[in-house]
Amino acid sequence: MSTLAEARSAASPEARHEARTTPFTRTLHTEWIKFRSLRSTWYTLAGLALAGLGITALGMGSVGAEYAGLTDAERLDWDPTSQSLTTYLVAQLIIGVLGILVVTSEYATGLIQTSLAATPRRHRLLAAKAVLVTVVAAVAGQTLMFASFFLGQAMLGTQGVPNASISDPGVLSAVVGGGVYLAAISLLALALGVILRATAGALATLVAIIFLIPGFAGLLPGWLGWLLDFWPTLGAAEVLATVPDPDYPAPWLNLAGMCLGVAATLAVAFVLFRRRDV
């Protein structure tokens, strides 16, 4: 009995901590180590910050002249919050690249085989990647949205243009909604990376979902016009505005619908990830 007690007391703190953690926690920790050790991760996050704030600064620099040319009726729909959050257009693409690389970088280097050998339960491995990407994207996206908002409103103030405060009605929900939207995009990108297993293919598909199909809406035949009413990224992006769009009167419902679509895509990714050989 004393020998057992001595063995327990001699156990290192690391060993005791290892014994208390769950298999999923250990897998998540391993994924975090891999994530932070990749240079591409930090380059992508740095690009998100620089490009996001740079676009905000460039875009808001000419807003004063734009506002001066508006009619009185147009000024009623002036939305300074939305003006300073337009950086999401590029941010969603950069943060999508981050979600894709978490998966496709392992396929490109062959590290995915090592990961599967260390974590044979594939659903646990993919769930850990999904949680990691969602948390990182939510923190990075939310930080960018708040920084862009405050930078944009400060620049509006220097130009004598009506600006917004974070305490104004609808402003905080718009900024927070931008972070939620970017987190959903990152999870969609992760799922596409799992399904296609190639960075170029997943990125091309993501660009088509975000930009091409909505951009070519006018070329769609009339019988497909209804599709755009439910296209996820169109209505969901309206959560970043404080002035309602008549075409999307309930943007948070659109965002919820987009999240359901992302969940369905992720479910397909889980099924394929478990059934494939690699």
UniProtKB/TrEMBL annotation:
Residues 1-13 have a biased composition (Low complexity). Pfam families: ABC2_membrane_4. It comes from the Bacteria. Keywords: Membrane, Transmembrane, Transmembrane helix. Residues 1-20 are annotated as: Disordered. The chain crosses the membrane at residues 42-65, 85-104, 125-151, 171-196, 203-224, 252-273. This is ABC-2 family transporter. It comes from Promicromonospora iranensis. The lineage of its organism: Bacteria, Bacillati, Actinomycetota, Actinomycetes, Micrococcales.
